[in-house]
Design goal:
single chain; 198 residues; alpha+beta; 16% helix; 57% strand; Outer membrane protein beta-barrel domain-containing protein; signal
């Protein structure tokens, strides 16, 4: 083999070795840059809201994940207590049902979260009967609320302590016959959650 051919063969081998090392390094960087897969998909948590239902107990689950993006759904329950109004009615308890779907994005335990929640409960309006003195009547109606969410979510892929805090304004829809306003907007709202993922 002539000297120029030896140099060409040596050059070709060196190019192959360096290109293989470069491709391996690139694929390694790509693997390292991928987000962690969340094995702990379930969450039990308590929510504390400062603009809507005061508290709720919830179960959530990650229903889809691809790289940094995860989708989660949750359902919850709460009880509101209505104080008595003198001589019109005694106090009573209102069960509240909540659902939420959110997306959160991050490579590990620190995530940006955004989504929408919904809750509803049955309420009553009491009226003094003008025809029969000393008697009252009541009309039941539904209160329905949509609660957008933007905030921070701390959840480890392997499970453990769960925390989130978010900006949660809300829109109330009231289908009560004599309501002065049937749609109410509350622009200020904050909520936090504490719980356990597993």
């Amino acid at each position: 083999m002539s000297i120029p051919n030896k140099y060409m063969l040596f050059s070709a081998l060196m190019i192959l070795v360096f290109s293989k090392n470069h491709a391996t390094a690139q694929s390694k960087d790509l693997v390292e840059s991928k987000a962690e897969i969340f094995m702990a998909k379930n969450v039990l948590h308590a929510d504390f809201a400062w603009s809507a239902v005061g508290y709720s107990l919830n179960y959530g689950r990650i229903i889809f994940q691809k790289d940094k993006l995860k989708l989660a759904g949750s359902a919850g329950f709460s009880m509101l207590f209505q104080d008595e109004i003198e001589s019109i009615h005694s106090g009573y308890v209102k069960p509240v049902f909540l659902t939420e779907i959110t997306a959160f994005s991050g490579r590990s335990k620190h995530n940006l979260e955004f989504g929408t929640g919904f809750y509803t409960y049955r309420d009553k309006r009491y009226y003094v009967d003008g025809e029969i003195p000393g008697t009252t009547t009541n009309k039941a109606f539904w209160v329905k609320s949509i609660v957008p969410r933007v905030g921070y979510r701390y959840q480890k892929p392997e499970g453990g302590f769960f925390f989130r805090i978010g900006y949660t304004p809300r829109i109330d829809f009231i289908n009560e016959e004599f309501a002065l306003e049937t749609v109410n907007f509350y622009l200020f709202g904050l909520s936090s959650s504490l719980g356990l993922s597993f």
